[in-house]
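2024-03-11 09:14:02 DEBUG pipeline.ingest accepted 1 chain
2024-03-11 09:14:02 DEBUG pipeline.ingest length=283
2024-03-11 09:14:03 DEBUG pipeline.predict start
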Amino acid sequence: MLVNFQQILPKAQKEHYAVGLFNALNTEMARGVIGAAEALRSPVIVGTAEILLPYSPLECVCDALKFMARRTDVPVVLHYDHGLTFEKCMEALQLGFTSLMYDCSTDPYEENVRKLAELTRIAHAFGATVEAELGHVGDNDSDDPTLEDPSAFYTDPVQAKEFVDKTHVDALAIAVGTAHGAYRFTPKLDFDRIVAIRQTIPETPLVLHGGSGLGDEDFRRAIQCGIAKVNIFTDINVAGARAIREAVQAEKCAMTDLMNLQVEAVKAETMKKMQLFGSQGKA
């Protein structure tokens, strides 16, 4: 069942659970993620990101995921994450993505507002929903200067309200101490800031990026404070690769040996996250 944010995130926010976004770059990853959603009767968000397109072209990912989403009876959002250019976001909409994130978080504030307001107007005409980022979530896999003092780039609660009022985005990714990729240090989340942002924009679902590698208690507390969507990629990516490595070491080297192992590994890791987020049984 192909849906957008409006059909799953307000309920998650109201009932204090979160829906996971799991990026899936091939059929095996997609089967694992959607299989987990079916097994647990959980809504799910699945898709790709602009930075991942060199590994799997946008149209290939869209065709596979859209087909699977329409065949299942659990709610599936097809999401284009961290779109960096207006052109690619438009391509995603035209291909049939039901949600997208236009990441202008490194632009000056007014430019971020202008770009998101324009794209949100267009996306809503397509029947799609839009996520934005305010503040900036760092990148562990690069020499990102925001990691030196991440608090300097945290989301301001008052500015968040103004931003949402001007752009009309459907969800807001906030910077509160997480980072993308595998962590090089123990993250320290600003839970009070999550609560403050939730209070200033009570109708807008909040998103936590950089979820892979966080401790279980951090997830639970962040969700109780107001997070309704959590992004996961590294954990399922590593789980699938680990299953393949172990199979090859056991001299199972044919693709037919490896495919189902990857599916099951991704499914198992996705199910762990869904249970942790509390989304099981919410489809």
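2024-03-11 09:14:41 DEBUG pipeline.report The longest helix spans residues 255-277.
2024-03-11 09:14:41 DEBUG pipeline.predict end
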